[in-house]
Amino acid sequence: MKIGETRVGRRIYTDANGYLPPFAEGDYGQGLDGGWCARPPGAHLGDLRNHEVAEHEDGTITVTPSILITGEDEHRATRWHGHLERGVWRRIK
């Protein structure tokens, strides 16, 4: 996902046992403990506990402030910085 590009995300929900399924790129969801997690396109899963999450009537969310995910995969370091607004991802750096 390039800087300035947007992509519609997908909200996922807990299963009958109360567990969230594995997150694909672009997914976001809320666990039974009330905590939100998200996986931006092209990035690792991140915890949103240090963010304000506003849930909208259509089930989408808006997260503030911006989301920064850093980590490493088997080949390289990764970094994603951007916004999730009404369920739409937008990368800024």
SSE blueprint:
Elements: E1 6-8, E2 10-12, E3 27-30, E4 36-38, E5 46-47, E6 52-55, E7 61-72, E8 77-85, E9 88-91
Parallel strand pairs: 2-3
Antiparallel strand pairs: 1-9, 3-4, 4-5, 6-7, 7-8, 8-9
Descriptive overview:
The chain has 93 residues and is mostly beta strands. It has one domain (7-91). Helices cover 0% and strands 47% of the residues. It is built from no helices and nine strands. It has a five-stranded antiparallel β-sheet, with no helix packed on it. It has a four-stranded mixed β-sheet with strand order 2-3-4-5, with no helix packed on it. It is globular and about 35 Å long. The relative contact order is 0.25. The model has no long low-confidence stretch (mean pLDDT 92).
Termini separation comes to: 10 Å
Low-confidence stretches: none
How many DSSP-defined strands?
Answer: 9
- Overall form: globular
Summarize the structure.
With 93 residues, the protein is mainly beta. The protein has no helices and nine strands. The strands form two sheets. Strands 1-9-8-7-6 form a five-stranded antiparallel β-sheet, with no helix packed on it. Strands 2-3-4-5 form a four-stranded mixed β-sheet, with no helix packed on it.
What keywords describe this structure?
mainly beta; 4-stranded mixed beta sheet; 93 residues; 5-stranded antiparallel beta sheet
